[in-house]
Specification:
This protein is mainly α. Helix content is 80%, strand content 0%. The radius of gyration is 18 Å and the shape is globular.
Length: 147
C-alpha cells in the first residue's frame, strides 16, 4: 500500500513535469495559442514525419526483436538491448539532424522545430525536454541492464 502511494506520487510528479507547459493542458490564451501555431506552422509536415518515424521505428525495432527472440537467434535480453539502442539512436539522430538543418538553413529554427514536434505529441517545449531526458534514461538503463 505504501509502495503504491509512493508510485502514485512519482507518477504524478513526472506527469506534472512533462505536461506543465503543454498547449492541451495548460491554460493558453487565444493569442498565445495563435502565436504558437503561427510559429510552428512552417514545420507542420516535417514534424508529422518525425512523429511517424518515431512510431514506425519503435514498431519496427519491437517486431525485429520479437522475431529474433522467436527464432532463437537472440535472447530476450539482447532483443531488449536492440530496442533500447534503436530508439536511442533514432531520437538522438533526429536531434542532431535538426541541429544540422538549423546550421545550414537560415530560416530553420531549432527551437521552433522542437516546439512543433512537441506540439504533435501534446507536449510543451520544456515538457518535451523532460520527456526526452526520461526516455533516454529509461532506454540507457534498459541497454545497460541487458548487456
Amino acid at each position: 500500500m505504501i509502495a503504491d502511494f509512493i508510485a502514485d506520487i512519482i507518477k504524478c510528479g513526472i506527469d506534472a513535469a512533462i505536461f506543465f507547459d503543454s498547449p492541451k493542458y495548460s491554460k493558453l490564451t487565444a493569442t498565445q495559442r495563435e502565436h504558437l501555431q503561427k510559429r510552428i506552422a512552417p514545420y507542420g509536415s516535417s514534424s508529422k514525419a518525425v512523429v511517424v518515424l518515431c512510431h514506425l521505428g519503435f514498431l519496427l525495432s519491437v517486431l525485429i526483436a520479437i522475431y529474433q527472440a522467436a527464432q532463437d537467434t537472440a535472447t530476450t535480453e539482447s532483443a531488449l538491448h536492440i530496442i533500447a539502442l534503436a530508439m536511442l539512436g533514432l531520437t538522438i539522430s533526429i536531434g542532431l539532424f535538426n541541429g544540422l538543418l538549423s546550421l545550414l538553413i537560415k530560416r530553420w529554427r531549432f527551437a521552433d522545430f522542437h516546439a512543433a514536434v512537441a506540439y504533435r505529441f501534446n507536449l510543451g517545449s520544456s515538457g518535451c525536454i523532460v520527456a526526452l531526458v526520461l526516455w533516454h534514461l529509461a532506454f540507457i538503463t534498459m541497454a545497460i541492464a541487458t548487456v
